[in-house]
Amino acid sequence: MLGKIEHLGIAVKNLEEAEKRYTQLLGVPPYKRETVESEHVITSFFMAGPNKIELLQATAPESAIAKFIEKRGEGIHHVAYEVEDIVAEMERLRQQGFTLLNEAPKHGADDKLICFVHPRDAHGALVELCQSI
């Protein structure tokens, strides 16, 4: 079962500019910046009260973030939900007919195992499953 919203992912063209703007907007600086080579992104995390915001900048043209921005422009890229057992949750969703974009969980940013659910199965929203490592 999906838990709380773990974070909102926002695709940005320029991470430094976006960090400055979100620092102004949220009133706090980012608490972590991390490169995720496997996803070809640099991420920056903010706390907004009890909620997390993840800014994502592509590091390569083949990145999902680069393709997203090319098609749709900057903006909300995904909604991430916390799960206790990502493997069990992936199996539950497969049995329910959801298309997973990953065969197995992979390492993501912020010390998480992650998996994505295809947007067509969630009414156009890209869903990320996140399990703390």
From TrEMBL:
Organism superkingdom: Bacteria
Protein family (similarity comment): Belongs to the methylmalonyl-CoA epimerase family.
Species per Swiss-Prot/TrEMBL record: Thermaurantimonas aggregans
GO biological process: L-methylmalonyl-CoA metabolic process
InterPro entries attached to this UniProt entry: Glyas_Bleomycin-R_OHBP_Dase, MeMalonyl-CoA_epimerase, MMCE/EMCE_epimerase, VOC_core
Domain VOC: 4-132
Name of this chain's protein: Methylmalonyl-CoA epimerase
UniProt keyword Metal-binding, yes or no: yes
Spans through the membrane: none
Keywords, in A-Z order: Metal-binding
One MF term in the entry's GO annotations: metal ion binding
Pfam families: Glyoxalase_4
